[in-house]
Design a protein that fits this description.
The chain is an alpha+beta fold. The protein has one domain: Arc Repressor Mutant, subunit A. It is about 40% helix and about 15% strand. α2 packs across α4 (about 60-70) and α3 (about 45-50) packs across α4 (about 60-70). Residues about 80-85 have low confidence and may be disordered.
Length: about 100
C-alpha cells in the first residue's frame, strides 16, 4: 500500500533548480535597465564600471553583461582604437551603441 506522500507526489513535475540561467542573465538585465536611463548614444566598459549598477562595477562582470546584451541584440559593439575581438571575447577599450 502506498503512503500518503507517495500518492500526493505521483503527478508532480520535478522540482526546478534555483539559479541556473536566470542567475547568469540577472547582471545583463540590470545593465539593460540602467541603459534605459543612459542619455549618450554610446556607452563604454569604463562608463558601466563608473556609473553603472553597483554589481557591475568591476570590468569583467561589466563586459560579460554587455556581451550577453550584444548576443541578444540590445547592444552593437563599435570599433574603437585598441579594441580587439577574438572568439567573441572583447579586450582593450570597448564601446557599444544602443539600439
Amino acid at each position: 500500500m502506498a503512503t500518503l506522500f507517495e500518492r500526493l507526489g505521483k503527478g508532480r513535475p520535478p522540482p526546478v533548480e534555483s539559479g541556473g540561467v536566470a542567475r547568469k542573465l540577472l547582471p545583463a538585465q540590470k545593465l539593460l535597465d540602467w541603459l534605459q536611463h543612459w542619455t549618450k548614444p554610446t556607452v563604454s566598459a569604463r562608463d558601466i564600471c563608473i556609473y553603472g549598477p553597483n554589481s557591475l562595477r568591476d570590468r569583467r562582470s561589466a563586459i560579460d553583461a554587455a556581451e550577453i546584451l550584444v548576443k541578444t541584440g540590445w547592444l552593437i559593439p563599435t570599433k574603437r582604437a585598441g579594441t580587439t575581438c577574438t572568439n567573441g571575447k572583447f579586450f582593450g577599450s570597448l564601446s557599444f551603441t544602443q539600439l
